Amino acid sequence: MQNSATLEYDYSIAKLFLYSTMAFGFIGMLIGVVLAFELAFPDLNYIAGEYGIFGRLRPLHTNGVIYGFTLSGIWAAWYYLGQRVLKITYHQHPFLKFIGYLHFWLYIVLLILAVISLLAGLTQSKEYAELIWPLDILVVVVWVLWGVSMFGSMGVRREKTIYISLWYFIATFTAISVLYIFNNLAIPTYFVAGMGSFWHSISMYAGSNDAMIQWWWGHNAVAFVLTSGIIGIIYYFLPKESGQPIFSYKLTLFSFWSLMFVYIWAGGHHVIYSTVPDWVQTLGSVFSVILILPSWGTAINMLLTMRGQWHQLKESPLIKFLVLASTFYMLATLEGPIQAIKSVNALAHFTDWIIGHVHDGVLGWVGFTIIAACYHMLPRMYKREIYSKKIMDIQFWIMTIGIVLYFSSMWIAGITQGMMWRDVDQYGNLTYQFIDTVKELHPYYLIRSIGGTMYLLGFIMFIYNVVMTITASKELDREPNYASPMAS
To answer: Is 269 annotated as a binding residue?
Structure first.
């Protein structure tokens, strides 16, 4: 049998997902910048007719970033690290390679159809679950193919231990499978009533029940795509890149199981002060606050992995990305529970503070982790040095400043909104009309647009660095051990 140290890993599928990570990251972020400017300058909504308005583009932005950029990054990491931690290679398992290719190409077809349908205004009008019913079926097929790849690989593994990253990937697969199917149960009206559009459907649930099921799904799309999938990535790439072992496996066990148990019940905080039962709202608030423990447990585990090695922050931009990603994770998972406290939620709900919270998590935690993972994989997949360390460093600072401008402007805007909406005069009448808040927030919307543009510029630099690494960088005669050698 071939020794695991001499295995020749097959990165062909990981490379395809790397390309889609860059493509859908750029598309999703570009649309996000367009939307930010549309909010700052509303006349921009009408330049492209109905296809350029906020309502058409916003689902494209969220779906493109969550299901295009983020899932592509998670799956690029899976098809890279899965072979390595399980000590298998797709050269020896052609069926798994076939499943991987089928997974990728059906996924690309799904994303293209999603772009077309959402741009055409075909939607179920459910947050993070906008796709029409035929595409929901295709989503399930794509998801099952990932499961076949993952569990099939584990079934033929040569390494007995299932590494931490795979725990989180299994959790992502299992939770999303259940949540997505239950939330998207629907009745196509054309087949049942013989009327309406072929694409139209109505939810199996009604009223408050629909809201509860929707946010059971909606918040856990964040939990099990933007959180557990990304934790799976950082648990592999930070130790590999730094050359340091994980700080504590006991802390890993605590964080994993408590995160799995607690996160699933936190979605109720999206329906506070609504018509859903009060116990559901309270449950959502309580479990959201408890979430600080497993979330910070993971982030602290990452940061303490760097103990005694903080000099690497000066030496490696890649380490800077990973360390700051963990820091943004701590920030976002403190901010979210605070917003879920009922008294705070009364001020924060429906304001731009929520938008700031989402984006310091996605841009800082998710974006930085995926970018760092791609930079780590590049020299090993293509056997070439990273093209430019200097570009990485400039990219890091541009994107970091962009994030700070983004979330700080949205914090101020959100709290300003909340205070103006609640302000009353001596007779109990509202002091401000809604349009007053819109006018007041214009400077902050402009700052948000500039911050988003800076992040997009950094991502374009990332794409350039990746392309130049693949096509024009110095070839390596052997794989780097951990910290990637980089040209200046």
So the answer is: yes
Task: Report d(CA 35, CA 27) in Å as an integer.
Answer: 12
CATH superfamily entry for domain 10-472: Cytochrome c oxidase-like, subunit I domain (1.20.210.10)
Tell me how many helices (H) and strands (E) the chain has: 20, 2
Instruction: Record the pTM.
Output: 0.95
Residue 219 assigned as binding residue: yes
SS3 184: coil
List, for residues 50-85, the tens digit of each pLDDT value. 999 999 999 999 999 999 999 999 999 999 999 999
103 is in an annotated binding site: no
3-state class (DSSP) for residue 188: strand
Over the stretch 226-272, which tens digit does the pLDDT of each residue have?
Answer: 999 999 999 999 999 999 999 999 999 999 999 999 999 999 999 99
Unique residue bearing structure tokens 């798994």:
96
Strand partners, 305: none
Domain positions in the chain are 10-472
Confirm if 384 and 469 have CB atoms less than 8 A apart.
yes
Cross-strand bridge partners of residue 475: 384
* 91 known ligand binder: no
Q: CA-to-CA distance for 206 and 203, rounded, in angstroms?
A: 7
Residue 1, pLDDT above cutoff 50? no
Residue 233: Cβ within 10 Å count: 27
The first and second tokens of residue 291, run together, are: 């979430």
CA distance 298 to 325: 12
Residue 225 DSSP label: I
